[in-house]
Every structure is written in structure tokens, then in C-alpha cells.
Amino acid sequence: MLLFATSRLLRAALTILFVMTFAFVVLRASGDPALLILSVDAPPDAIAAFRKAWGLDQPLWQQYLSYIGHALTGDFGKSMRDGRPAIDLVMERVPATLALTLPALALKIGIGIPAGIYAALHRNTFADRMTMALSVAGFTMPSFVLALLLVLIFSVTLGWLPASGNESPANAILPIITLGTAGAAIMARFTRSAMQEVLGQPFVRAASAKGLAWRRVISHHALPNAAIPTVTIVGFMVGSLVAGAVVVESVFAWPGIGRLLVSSVANRDLAVVQALLMVIAAWMVMANLAVDLAYGWLDPRVRSAVGATGH
User: Fold this and answer.
1) How many C-beta atoms surround the C-beta of residue 187 within 10 A?
2) What kind of architecture, by CATH, is found in domain 93-309?
3) How far apart are CA 265 and CA 244, in angstroms?
4) At what angle do helices 223-251 and 270-298 cross, to 10 degrees?
């Protein structure tokens, strides 16, 4: 198990380094931030002074080595807009994003898994077809369309909920529903498929033939085996929560890291964008790492395969 965990940690570190490198190169290849922040009409001396102050006059490789060296010490640079440390600006927004994403994750799991199990146990019935029809509608509808539809119904027409801001807990209801709907639909379909595959396995039929109660067959034999593939989709959803919040936070004017990413990209604030992408990448990598470790715990064959191959 130690070798399994070590190999996954090394892979996670290399993935984060790759994301940081990719973001560094792409952001500098996309344009000169000095021209955007100072405007193209600024005097050449002012533009040159700005580039020198922020190290943009150095060769790209030298900028990269300086960035990586400082990042290893926890210094991700300062915002070109207000001079504050970029990581401080990002971490200030994390609680607001978690206030949406964690309840949305609970909504996805709390609705999607039971719905998928129910549909699998009532295969080809009206309830099954209705559940799958709703799930298709849920994950095919773009999040911004659903967000605007919810605002139109519950804010504009009925006046029950606020449409933007974060002044009260009521402001979070519509964003959470928007974030959770597609995930719950995907979870329902995936869980149904996993359960149906397990229910057709010989060991389930053998357990039933032994005279075990059907409830016990489901809870002690079918569900534990269906949990292994379901862990994959849960890990994917955890990893994509922060990235999915970008659109939702912009629509509902929610002050999280998704909205900060949009404004920082528009302002070409390199240090803040790089810090944001690093945090998002770390979140997704840690989610996938947790899935890998959960696989190793749920299925010993995974640990055995890693020990045999060494990676």
C-alpha cells in the first residue's frame, strides 16, 4: 500500500508542475500585460518601467525559473492590479466557493446515487424511464441556461429567492441547485449502470439462491461491488466542482474563485491567474489521488498490480 500511495503522490506532484508550466507559457504567449494595464497609448518609458518592475523584460526561461523557485517557497507573486500577494487574493475567495461546491456535491450524491439504485432495481418500469429521462435533461442542459431559467422562475416571476450576491444563505440556493443538478443526473445514470452490471453477476444470483433476503443481497453483495466504479465518478465530480463554479459564480455574481478567475484573465493579472490555476489543479489532482487510494482500499487487486509493475 505504501508503494501504491507513493507512486500516486509522485504522479500528482508532476501533474501540478505540468499545469503550472503550461499556464506560465500560455499566459505570456497570449499578450503583453503591460499594454492592457497601462493601455497602448502609454509612453514607451512607462511601459518599459512596468515590464522591468514585474520582471517581464527578462528572457522567458529566466522568468520561469524565478517563478518556480519562488513558488516552491510559497511565493506565487503579487497582483499587478493592487500589489497584494496573489495567493492571499485566491485564499480569500476559497470559503465562498466552498459554500457553494460542498452543498452541491452533497446534492449530487444524495440525489444521484439513490435515484440510480432505485432505477436499477426497477428496471424497465415507468419509474426507471422517468428517472433516466430527467437525468438526460439534467446533464444535457448547459449550466448557464439552467441558471438563467432558475433566476427567471424563482427570482423574477415568483420573487422567492435573490438573483445575485451573497448577503444571506438564501443567495446560495439557486447557485447550489445549478451546480448540483447536472452532477446528480450523471450520478444517477452511472449508478444505475453500475448496479445493473453487478446485479447480473453470478455471485449475486448465487447469494439469492442461498435463500438470503433480497434486501441483504443488495446491501451486502450488490452495493459494495457497485461502489467501486461509482467512486470514479464521485472523484471526477469533486475535482470538477471548482472549475464548474466559474460559470455559476459569474451568473449569480458570487464572490468566489471562479469569478476571480474571470476578472483576472480579463485584466491579464498573471500572478493571480497562475495562483488560481495552481489551486484548481491541486484540487483536481488531490481528488483523483483520493480516488486512486480509495480504489486501492476497495479493491486489493489494484494494490497488487501496482506492486507487481512498480508504477
Assistant:
1) 28
2) Orthogonal Bundle (1.10)
3) 16
4) 170
The total of other beta-carbon atoms located within 10 Å of residue 85's CB is 17
Q: How far is the C-alpha of 93 from the C-alpha of 262, rounded, in Å?
A: 13
Other CB atoms within a 10 A radius of the CB of residue 47 amount to 18
pLDDT tens per residue, range 52-87: 888 777 888 888 888 888 888 888 888 887 888 888
By CB atoms closer than 10 A (0-12, 13-18, 19+), residue 214 is: exposed
Ordered by start, the domain boundaries in the chain are: 8-72, 93-309
Sorted by sequence, the CB contacts under 8 Å of residue 155 that are 6+ apart come out as 161, 162, 163, 174
Q: What is the CA radius of gyration of the chain?
A: 24
Per-residue model confidence as pLDDT tens digits over 282-301: 888 887 777 767 666 655 55
212 class by beta-carbon count within 10 Å (0-12 exposed, 13-18 middle, 19+ buried): middle
d(CA 262, CA 77): 19
- Identity at 294, one-letter amino acid code: A
285 touches 15 (CB < 8 A): yes
User: Can you tell me whether residue 31 is helix, strand or coil?
Assistant: coil
- What single letter denotes the amino acid at residue 270? L
Q: Which residue has the cell 506560465?
A: 24
Query: Residue 196, Cα to own-chain centre: how many angstroms?
Result: 27
**Per the confidence metrics, is the pTM higher than 0.85?**
no
Grid cell at residue 43: 509612453
Is pLDDT above 60 for 17? yes
**H/E run at residue 11:** helix 2-29
CA within 13 Å, CB half, 82: 7
Closest CA to 19 of 239, 284, 242: 284
Quick check: helix, strand or coil at residue 102? helix
DSSP state of 13: H
